Amino acid sequence: MVLGAIGRGLLRLGSEDPDPPAHAGDPPADAGDPPADAGNRPAGTASGDGAAAPGGNMGLLTLAVVGVGAEVTRRAVRVATAAADAAEHGATILMEHRPVPDSVQRLRGGVRTWGERGQEALHEGGSAAVDLGLNVVSTVVPAVTSRLDIDAIVEQVDIGRIIDRVDLNEIVSRLDLNAIADRIDIERIVQRLDLAAIASSVLDQLDLTSITQSVIEQLDLTDIARRVMDELELGELIRESSSTVTVEAVDALRVGGMNADRFVAQLMNRILLRRGGDGHAPDGSEVTGEPPGGTGP
Amino acid sequence: MTAGVRPEEARALQGQVAGFVTRLAANIIDMVVLAITWVGLIAFIGLVRFIAHPLKGWHLPAPPTWESGLSIMVLAILYLTIGWSGTGRSVGKRMAGLRVQTSTSHDLKSGRALSRAILYVVFPIGFLWVLISRKNKSLWDIVLATTVTYDWGLRPAPPRVAAAREESARER
């Protein structure tokens, strides 16, 4: 009876005014067991109230109910613990004076039992409150996220400013590039490269014929050849060689023969005691004079 | 002793009667050419014989002396006739810068060239008359009314060479 009255009182406190704990803490002073029961109830009542509450500000009301329930539970546990402590204290005094050892012993056992129950109730109530809170969050968060314009929020983020804050130099200085380079297996990469195919494709794309033709067009080989020939003076070389080697050599021999002819003619003139033995041709004319066309048959 | 003939003077001497030394040099060159031709002919005959009768082995023909002499004479007459007719220049005369002409400065025809060649080969001693003759005539020159003159045959060439040299000098 008493427990039921206390439970109803606590319920009234939880639903109407979450504040007056002093009032709630008083009644169980004479009996240590009821608060545990009372602590157990408010959680169930709170969840029941939350479910029965009308729509509209349902989320807010649910949160309020959860908060009230948690507070009530906490205070109820505190009251129960305080009552148990007081009871134990009184029992201890009684035991020291040994007026009613058996009854005190029994009372002590009962109090201990109720204390354990209170602990369990506290534990269950806490886990129930956590479940309820999670349920509420699971319903509230989607509702909140659906109303939030994430894109607008993202647009407000100044990425440039974030990048400005990032010190790339420091990051790079932390990187050990040599170690990275050591890990790269260049030979394997080169083996993977099909150099022949690359070269052939490059050659396919290069039109060597047109390149060569354009180079040749720009070279003006005729002009180059002409300038080379001018520098060489090949014609003069040939003329000089021919004149030097053949004409002049043969001419020199022929001139020598002419001189020998004149010498022999003069010698014969002297031997034969003929006139004209001094610089005259055998026919009597001057050597450098008119040709001897008139030589008779 | 007179001063030597300078090349400029030598050009002015073209067409004059040639002397003993140059004609002798021309004859010697002709003889050398004939000798080479003769040896080549003998070798050719031996080759033909070897090809025809290989089992007899390779050996140069050794004809009798009279046969050889006659062949050489025939070869010389042919060679000189061909050389003197037309241009009037055998190989020896070409190299010595000489030319055989008639006394009237015309080219020899083949008949007179043949006659001169036969006389030349049969009576070679007649060449020495050049020394005696005041007009540098050999015996067959007198008989056949021919003469040997200086004719280098390259008379147009030297002025061309000189002109080319002058031209290149002006271009520089």
What does this structure look like?
The complex is a heterodimer of chains A (297) and B (172). With 297 residues, chain A is mainly alpha-helical. Among the domains of chain A are: 2-149, no CATH class; 236-289, no CATH class. In chain A, 79% of the residues lie in helices and 0% in strands. Chain A has 14 helices and no strands. In chain A, helix 3 (34-52) packs antiparallel against helix 4 (58-97). Chain A starts with a helix and ends in a 26-residue tail after the last helix. Mean pLDDT of chain A is 72; it is low at 16-53 and 277-297. Chain B has 172 residues and is mainly alpha-helical. Chain B has one domain (9-171). Chain B is built from 8 helices and 2 strands; from the N terminus they run H-H-H-H-E-H-H-H-E-H. Chain B has helices spanning 7-12, 20-52, 65-84, 91-96, 110-122, 129-132, 139-144, 157-171; strands at residues 98-102, 146-150. Chain B has a two-stranded antiparallel sheet. In chain B, helix 3 (65-84) runs antiparallel to helix 5 (110-122). At the A-B interface, helix 14 of A face helix 1, helix 2, strand 2 and helix 8 of B.
